[in-house]
Design a protein that fits this description.
Blueprint (H helix, E strand, L loop, with lengths): L1 H7 L8 H16 L2 H12 L6 H22 L6 H18 L7 H39 L1
Helix pairs in contact: 1-2, 1-4, 2-5, 2-6, 4-5, 5-6
Length: 145
Amino acid sequence: MVRSAVESVRLPVAGSTRERVVALVEAAWAAFSAPTSMASLEISLATRTGRSAAQDAHLNNIARQLHQLGARLTGQPDDRLGDVLWAALRGMVLSQMVAREPVEFGQERAVLVDVLVAYLELRLDQERSAALVGGAAGDGADAVT
């Protein structure tokens, strides 16, 4: 169930960074907070000591797919953004699982969006700065020759 939830997350191609992050967080939340996904997570937790190698491989595949959610957003294959997204959402889902009443996580998801957007914008600024410095260094080296 978790695997199908990961596969169901669709990331918009167009839009601002914030719009794309909001779409990712909300789609991932809808998928992971669904009753079947929560049940799948609960079963995975309850059976963790007796899992077979095939079950571990299945869970590792899901982890790779979650990692790739962040990579789809950043365009970087080694990006950990998907891991951070999954860790935050997993915490929210676990809190929901142990609560007697439904818990609203709208504010927490909004903070998660703010954190991810700030990270992405900082990273973009760093990449732009590096490109400017690299371009300036290349121009100077040519002039010396």
